[in-house]
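Example noted here:
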Amino acid sequence: MNGRLLRSAVCSAAVVIDRERNAIDELNVYPVPDGDTGTNMSMTMAAAKRELSVMPEDATAGEVAEKAASAMLRGARGNSGVILSLLFRGLAKGLAGLEEVQGRDLANALEIGVQSAYKAVMKPTEGTILTVARMGAQQAQITARTNQDPVAVFSEALDAAMQALEKTTEQLPILKKAGVVDAGGKGLVTIWGAMLAVLRGEAPAEEDASVTKKETVAIGRVDLEEEITYTYCTEFILEKSKDCPDPFKLRAYLETIGDCVVVVEDEEIIKVHVHTDSPGLALQKALEFGQFINDPKPKVENMRIQHAGKVREAQNAAQDETYVRAEPEKKFGFVAVAAGEGLRDMFRELGVDCVVSGGQTMNPSTEDILKAIHATPAKNVFVLPNNKNIIMAAEQAVGLADRNVLVLQTRTIPQGMSAMLAFDDGLDSEGNRIAMTKAFEKVSTGLVTYAARDSELDGHPIREGEVLALENGKLAFTGRELNQTAYKLAKRMISGDTSFVTVTFGQDVSKEDADALADRLQEKYGDRIEVMLADGGQPVYYYMIAVE
């Protein structure tokens, strides 16, 4: 298994997981709209594909694995994406310095990846992608003892992983009730299966030709948008031979092997431009009409590499407009993740330097968070993920940053705001970490959203479109009328110790409805509890209710 084959396998897997991501998303048992496992894993693999597509053809296996792992680390989205990136980081460590891969090398690399993934998860849960990866790696070790064929080792690893995937239904009661396997585990066997197919000699998967995909990156009013049919832009000038055939024949031939053909002649020369996958054939045919001149020399350029570079530059330029790297001048700074202009404004008013756009259904990547950290002009940067599926991606940025980063385990927007209110400039980093953590842990968060799919939780059937009331991340009950459900949830959360209730309404709630809910709570509890209403403009959640 050399670098070229490994690169082809990873790129093929990126295409396959993209095709299957919706089906994997549907395996998510919890009915709330979320970041979706298949989508996050697909976007993480896509980051590797983009970087591998511009690598030299003669790159070694170790170099390919390192490039893929580095891209996936920065592009990791959601917990499933981070774990996937860690598995590939193990692959890179195990294959470091190798031109080609033997069975033992692959087995060791898979094992390193599993160990890294388990270490990164505070409380590993069996019956998930971790179990599937671990069982596959264990079988790889067993097979490699007697067989040094990497294809055989990977094949046995995949078989074991697929068996482990089937058993996840029995390991997690919530999966058993829903009758599905773990989504992350399914994503992993999909990726491994696509890679193995290429290693066995099958043609790499290609993007669906029936769906035209354009890479578009906006910079101000400029779009980089291009469809590339042939790979090589080939240009040359010929000095005509004495018995030069009609140049029209050269043009006719070039049009059979490419497009964008231009053939211009005068009495002495022929100038040629063609886009083709076979520049050698174009040059060989040209010799029938004359000889190449040296000034300018014939030129063959890979347009896909050129385009990928332009897209990368455009992405960086677009990103830099939002996040400009700043020198760490002040002592403390803050990065928060939030969606909705109202929420972003609230965090800025609380002193947050950079607000990363994201949250439920749109998990930012490690790279997104890292750029925000580097744009924060502080020596010590606190990061508030404000979503459980973003915490791991934020933690991966710690080791990549050029300054001290402290990730607080905030799982909701209200927790993030409470943490900011507890910051004390008179304390050091550790003192603030403790104080801010204690503050957000006292916050109870109620969320009112909708059921994205039919499901069943704790024996209660849930129908798509029903209103869901979540208390501290767990389903409390369902309802049909939005404001009634929100009021009932707030009543459930309020206790004798409650002093404050903050209701933040989202983009799909009218100001009139929000006022009506706040007035009702004020009428019920206003004599002893302060009720505040805020326009967050957030997607997904109709209401966020913070009880302190």
